[in-house]
Amino acid sequence: MSQPSPVLDETQITRLIVSGFAERFLADTDLEVAIAGAGPSGLTAARLLAAAGRHVAVLERHLHVGGGMWGGGMLFPRLVIQEEARPLLEEIHVHLEPAEGGYYTADSVETVAKCTAAARDAGASIWVGITVEDVMVNEADEVRGVVVNWDAVEKAGLHVDPLSLGCRVLIDATGHDASVLRTIQRKIPGARLDSPTGQVMGERSMNSALGENQIVELTREVYPNVIASGMAANAVASACRMGPIFGGMFLSGQKAAQLALAKLA
Ligand code: 48H
Prior knowledge:
By secondary structure, this protein is an alpha/beta fold. The chain is 38% helix and 23% strand. It has a single domain (28-264), classed as FAD/NAD(P)-binding domain, CATH 3.50.50.60. The strands form 2 sheets. Strands 1, 2, 6, 7, 8, 9, 10 and 11 form an 8-stranded mixed beta sheet that branches. Strands 3-5-4 form a 3-stranded antiparallel beta sheet. Helix 2 packs parallel to helix 4 (108-122), helix 2 (40-51) packs parallel to helix 9 (247-264) and helix 7 (208-218) runs parallel beside helix 9. The longest helix has 18 residues, at 10-27. The mean pLDDT is 97. Residues 36-42, 59-62, 67-69, 131-132, 173-177, 179-180, 206, 230-232, 241-243, 246, 249 line the site of ligand 48H.
């Protein structure tokens, strides 16, 4: 016979939530890799780094993960993916449908769910509702951590000081805005990023072939200890946007993980 449920105790539920959060958040105050942004590139980098045994956390400002994947193209929830990225999705069991022209398509919701679950199963932390609002630097202005706050605090315009998490490598996977790198250029006097102007130049208008061809090459360490990944990599160097084709994002996340692993070695 099944045991009767215990009387539900509201204060015990509270203790479990607070202690569970505190335990995990404290463990993440000293990370090997912090990833800003839980879009396709950030989630892929997180999965591969965690699978390689690295201590990694993703910080996502929204309460939901997935970045630009949910809406596919113009809210039609399908993703188009090229052959080169197929293994990265097949290894996490995303159903890919072969399509005309050598492409594959996938369901956006399934892809978000499986990228997220695979990153968590591999051991990556994923924190939602938390914005990376600044970075921590050493005497040489090299990045050594992230400064974080609740997105709700920022949205409410409250004057609440942030907290900080240390990391050896930071991946800016914040998408079109390259928001962490823009913060670095705004707040670190004389900061020069690895781009033709030394700044985040902003992405160019759409050309899918150019944008997808450039993104893996442009995924690189653009500031000491900061790797640009995904759309942020193209935004730094004034490369083209590519529209709703996502292979390059997964491949960029893979390259970001490889670069981070090489730095940690
Ligand atoms: C915490 C932050 C912060 C911050 C932003 O936009 P994303 O999906 O990023 P990518 O680069 O992995 O993928 C890009 C792809 O989705 C896309 O937009 C494409 C292919 N566009 C082509 C085109 O032509 O339009 O995800 C970035 C995530 C989002 O979830 C943001 O909420 C989050 O980063 N974010 N999180 N701290 N400061 N800034």
